Amino acid sequence: MGAPKTAPRTSYHHGDLRNALMDSAVDLARLGGPAAVVLREVARRVGVSATAAYRYFSAADELLDEVKHAALARLAEWIEKAVDAVPADGDPADVALARLRASAEGYLDFAFAEPGLFQTAFCRDDLEHPEEDEPEDFSDAAAFQIFSRLLDEVVLTGGMSEQCRVGAEIAGWSTVHGFAVLSTEGPLGRHLPPEVLAFVRKRTIDVLMRGLTRAE
Amino acid sequence: MGAPKTAPRTSYHHGDLRNALMDSAVDLARLGGPAAVVLREVARRVGVSATAAYRYFSAADELLDEVKHAALARLAEWIEKAVDAVPADGDPADVALARLRASAEGYLDFAFAEPGLFQTAFCRDDLEHPEEDEPEDFSDAAAFQIFSRLLDEVVLTGGMSEQCRVGAEIAGWSTVHGFAVLSTEGPLGRHLPPEVLAFVRKRTIDVLMRGLTRAE
DNA sequence: CCCCAGAAGTTGACGCCGTTAACATCGAGG
DNA sequence: CCTCGATGTTAACGGCGTCAACTTCTGGGG
Lengths: 216, 216
Prior knowledge:
Chains A, B: InterPro entries: Homeodomain-like_sf, HTH_TetR, MT1864/Rv1816-like_C, Tet_transcr_reg_TetR-rel_C_sf. The structure is a homodimer. The first copy, chain A, is built from ten helices and no strands. By secondary structure, the first copy, chain A, is an all-alpha fold. Chain A has a domain at 67-213: Orthogonal Bundle (Tetracycline Repressor, domain 2). Mean pLDDT of chain A is 91; it is low at 1-5. The structure holds a DNA duplex.
């Protein structure tokens, strides 16, 4: 198992080892989630000794942490793409709502299409970030900021009251994330046939949209 | 680290090793989540050799799986308790809604009070259940069945249309579970001060209740 | 009462993991 | 050309899950 993915390199020095290790690690995460990101295996696939990785990552956790950030970035791209695919013509209020809905669909599409990366994106990191930045920093979760922006659009176009707006990104994120987790790694995915899953998925987003837009 | 929790046993045979191992494993899960359930450490704490555990569990995964079921059971108890604490007097429709809300609060209370167990309850098991039972079996997630029952109450008391009912347990479960995950092991818990967290928690449940009860 | 078969627990070993320390190799600048 | 820092290697340690072989205990039939 774990045949080297690239031909054994010719020169003693690799030239771009850090990126090669990252690519290899992301591949493993894609296939097997965070548990599959094993330092020795990552190095093996690049054709390098395990300890070489320590020139670029202080520990295995740090490598995993970078993979995690890469996965979060891909999730954000995916969502952005889904949002941008919504046609912008018609009633602005409807467009804003459609874009919000599309963000939720994009989130779930990513989780289903790349379960390993999704799982990695939200796996607990045992890494000790000593209180980096201010506590309000969500930069690692760009999805959150996209949700926020789209919710603002909805408010501006009159689809939602200011009062409903507060905290709405977290309610929305919770619903979508919960469904993604329960489906891809939880009991839902294990017990529900695909067509039923698709149905309850739509149902879940409906409930969310109703809950968000309903007057107080 | 990991001093034996009990005095070294006197007799060669333990007498109740299986339960002792389970208790030890649950303790570890409570403190450190699924990753802390390490076979050798579990055995060490009971004062027994690691391989002794193989008399009762075919592999470490199987032990973890039993801990997982125990954690799910505790979650269900917690929810049930929260639901039963709702006073039953007054308008039955209001009572039904209050009980539904209480179940969500109980779910979250458990997740916050016992993050290690909560995380263990929903951790991915690499154990190969060869299609045990029919695919619709949610017996391991008693929380799901409680939600279902409470939603039926709401429908019967007129708080919700039959049409809204279908799939509602999954929408509700998703929202509550997502919030729990994002708070206890995700970015929410890391970045939000407790009072803000408590606020958005209420907000999230509000959105859910609105989405569930709003006419189609 | 003894004895012995099988249940219950132990020891030792293997291969895997992350990590450290000491060593080898390359290539760029004096 | 030669050195020295950057880059990569080998060897080793302890911890993990797991297997095979061994030891210790206990209950039920002669």
